[in-house]
Amino acid sequence: MKLIIKLLLTALAVVILSKILPGVAVEGYGSAIIVAIVIALLRLIVKPILVLLTLPITIITFGIFLLIINAFIIMMADYFVGGFAVATIWWALLFSLLLSLFQSLLFSLIKED
């Protein structure tokens, strides 16, 4: 149940950010839910592989390269979801940062069992 609530809160954050950022567009709430699911799956499956492959550059940049990996995941979600569009990698980077901020704020509202 908590996973569904987190996905819906992420979809809400995606919709809010698409209204705020001019370089990000989502067609509707259904597309936002699909974007939330795709981003969650990409973070679960692809991100650990990318982190492992780019470990030397991540160490050299003291972890800042992880921001680029997150932006790349957003660009991959743009590729996979038809109703979601991100203009450039810079908009994906800003979207990724703001999405993480919104998620931390929204997830703090969920009560722990």
Automatic annotation (TrEMBL):
Keywords: Membrane, Transmembrane, Transmembrane helix. The keyword Transmembrane helix applies. The keyword Oxidoreductase does not apply. This is Membrane protein. The chain crosses the membrane at residues 28-46, 53-77, 89-110. It comes from Aequorivita aquimaris.
